[in-house]
Design brief:
alpha+beta, Transferase(Phosphotransferase), domain 1, Neuraminidase, 2 domains, 30 strands
C-alpha cells in the first residue's frame, strides 16, 4: 500500500495497520512499539501547531522502519478538530491494537485515560501517556531479559551435556559457551539495552549505534543521563525546525520532547529526571515525565554548554566569549564567576562539568596560545583556575561510584586523535594511573572545541565520529555510538 507521510509529505509504502489487524492479533510488544511510535508522531504534529483529525488503523502504515501516520485522504466534515480529537482517536486506536493480546492492567489504565467518556477526565496531552507507554515497554524488556538469561543457562547446560565424553570438562564448557554465544549474537543490541536495567549488570561491554529519527539529522552532541537510561539530543527535521528528542536505551525509537522547539546543547540534572537546554535566547529545563519546559534565565549568543549539580545550581556558558555563569535551577538572575582575561590572551571558557561533590568543575579554556589552551579545573565561587593538561577540545567526567571514592571517577579526553580514559582524583584534582585508549576514530567539532562524547555514572559511553561513516560535514551529523560497561572493560 502506498500513501503520503503526514509529517514529511514524502511517499511511503508498507502494510496498512487495518490490513495487519485483519490477519490476527498483535503481540504485546508490537502493540507497545507501534503505540510509542504513533504517539511520538502525534506529539510532533501537535508541537508544530497541527492536528491530524482522522487517526485510525486505515491511516497507519507499517514499514520495516516502523509505523508511519499517513496524510488524511479527505477532510472530515463536522466540528473543527483539535488536539483532543487526536488524543481520543489515539486511545481508540490503542484499544483496537491491544484487542486479543495479553494486555497488562497498566496498559488498560492508559487506554481508559485516553478514551474516558467524560471529556474533563480524559487526557489533555499525549506526552504523559507516551511516557507511561515507554515505562510499560521497559518492564516488558526487563522481563524478556530475565527469560533470556534463563534460556541461556538451559541452552548452555544442554550443549555441555551433548559434548562427547572424551572431551575434557573445562573444554566442554568453553565449546558450549561458544555455541550459545553464536545463537544469541543477533540479539546483542537488545541485550545491551536490557543490561542497563539490571541491579547486577553483565560486566561485558556492548557496542551499538543509534541512527537519528527518520527524516531528521542530529544537530549537536547527545547527552546520556547520569543513570545511563536515556539519551537526549537535538535533531533538525526536513522543515528546518529543531527540537529535543528523548531516546530510552531500552526502546527502538526516540520521541520528541514537547515544547522544546529550537532546543540545543542538552545536559542532565543529577537525578536524571530533568534536562537543561538552550532555546530562543534562553536557558530552559524540562522534566522527562512530560511537563512543559520552564525558562530559567536569558542566555544569548552561541552557547558553550551547561552543568547541573545536586544542590540545584547550574553553571553555563551563555556565549563563546562571556565566561562561566551560575544560576539556580529554579530560575533567577545569572551571576558571573569566571571570566576570560583578554589581557592574557584568554578567549573562551566552555563546556563545564561538575565533579561528584558539586563544588569542583572541569572546563575547557581557549586562549591565543596553544601552550595555555586546554582542560582546567576550578572550585565554584573561588574565581581561581588551574590547568590540568593541554588539549584542543573539552574533557568529560564519568563518576562511576560514590563521590568519596575518587578512584572511581574517570576523565575522558582526546589524546593524539584517540578517545582516552584515565582515573581522576576528585579531591586532589589530579590524573592518576595510566591512560587507556577507548576509541581511535573520534573527531572533534573544531569550531566549538567540542568532543562529541558523553558518559553516564554507570558505564554508558556515547560518541559520534564523522570518519566512522566516511566523508561527513561534522561529527554531529553522524550516528551515535553507544558502549555499555566501558569502565568494567577498562578495569579488566
Amino acid at each position: 500500500m502506498a500513501g503520503t507521510d503526514f509529517l514529511s509529505g514524502e511517499p511511503v509504502e508498507g502494510e496498512l495497520l487495518a490490513d495487519r489487524l485483519a490477519k490476527g492479533s498483535l503481540s504485546l510488544g508490537e502493540v507497545l512499539g507501534y503505540a510509542i511510535e504513533i504517539g511520538g508522531i502525534l506529539q510532533t504534529v501537535h508541537a508544530r501547531g497541527r492536528v491530524h483529525g482522522s487517526v485510525s488503523p486505515a491511516s497507519i502504515v507499517l514499514t520495516k522502519s516502523g509505523a508511519h501516520v499517513l496524510r488524511p485522504s479527505e477532510r472530515i466534515r463536522g466540528e473543527p478538530s483539535d488536539e483532543r480529537t487526536d488524543i481520543l482517536a489515539f486511545g481508540v486506536l490503542l484499544r483496537r491494537m491491544a484487542r486479543g493480546s495479553e494486555t497488562p492492567a497498566t496498559l488498560e489504565q492508559v487506554i481508559a485515560s485516553l478514551t474516558a467518556e467524560d471529556p474533563a477526565r480524559r487526557r489533555q496531552r499525549l506526552q504523559t501517556a507516551a511516557t507511561e507507554l515507554r515505562l510499560i515497554s521497559s518492564s516488558l524488556t526487563r522481563a524478556t531479559w530475565v527469560r533470556h538469561r534463563q534460556l541461556r543457562r538451559t541452552a548452555k547446560a544442554k550443549a555441555a551435556q551433548a559434548m562427547p565424553r572424551k572431551v575434557p570438562a573445562r573444554l566442554r564448557g568453553g565449546l558450549a559457551g561458544i555455541a550459545v554465544t553464536a545463537l544469541f549474537t543477533l540479539a546483542a543490541s537488545a541485550i545491551a539495552a536490557a543490561v542497563l536495567l539490571e541491579h547486577k549488570p553483565d560486566s561485558r561491554a556492548f557496542k551499538f549505534t543509534v541512527a537519528p529519527p527518520e527524516h531528521t539529522s542530529y544537530a549537536g552532541a547527545p547527552a546520556v543521563s547520569p543513570d545511563g537510561r536515556y539519551l537526549a539530543f537535538s535533531a533538525v527535521g526536513t522543515d528546518g525546525g529543531r527540537m529535543l528528542w528523548l531516546q530510552s536505551l531500552d526502546a527502538l525509537h526516540a520521541l520528541t520532547i514537547l515544547g522544546t522547539e529550537g532546543g540545543s546543547d542538552p545536559f542532565w540534572s543529577p537525578d536524571s529526571q530533568s534536562i537543561g537546554f538552550f532555546a530562543n535566547h534562553s536557558l530552559r529545563k524540562v522534566r522527562v515525565t512530560g511537563e512543559l519546559p520552564q525558562t530559567i534565565c536569558a542566555a544569548d549568543g552561541l552557547r558553550g554548554g551547561g552543568a547541573w549539580n545536586s544542590e540545584g545550581t547550574i553553571v553555563f556558558a551563555p556565549g563563546m566569549a562571556n565566561g562561566l555563569y551560575r544560576v539556580p535551577a529554579d530560575g533567577g538572575t545569572p551571576e558571573p564567576f569566571l571570566h576570560p582575561d583578554s589581557a592574557k590572551g584568554e578567549r573562551s571558557l566552555l563546556w563545564p562539568k561538575f565533579l561528584p561533590d558539586g563544588k569542583r568543575l572541569v572546563f575547557f579554556e581557549l586562549t591565543e596560545r596553544p601552550e595555555t589552551t586546554g582542560v582546567y579545573t576550578t572550585v565554584l565561587g573561588s574565581g581561581e583556575r588551574r590547568m590540568l593538561f593541554r588539549s584542543e577540545a573539552n574533557a568529560v567526567l564519568a563518576a562511576a561510584a560514590a563521590p568519596a571514592r575518587s578512584r572511581h571517577v574517570y576523565l575522558l579526553f582526546l589524546k593524539e586523535g584517540s578517545l582516552t580514559g584515565q582515573a581522576f582524583s576528585a579531591s586532589r584534582l589530579n590524573l592518576e594511573g595510566e591512560p587507556v585508549t577507548l576509541a581511535d576514530d573520534i573527531d572533534m567539532v573544531k569550531r566549538l572545541s567540542l568532543m562529541p562524547v558523553s558518559a553516564s555514572n554507570n558505564g554508558v559511553l556515547t560518541d559520534q565520529s564523522a570518519t566512522r561513516m566516511g566523508p561527513a560535514p561534522s561529527p554531529e551529523s553522524s550516528p551515535i555510538t553507544i558502549v555499555t560497561n566501558w569502565i568494567e572493560k577498562q578495569k579488566n
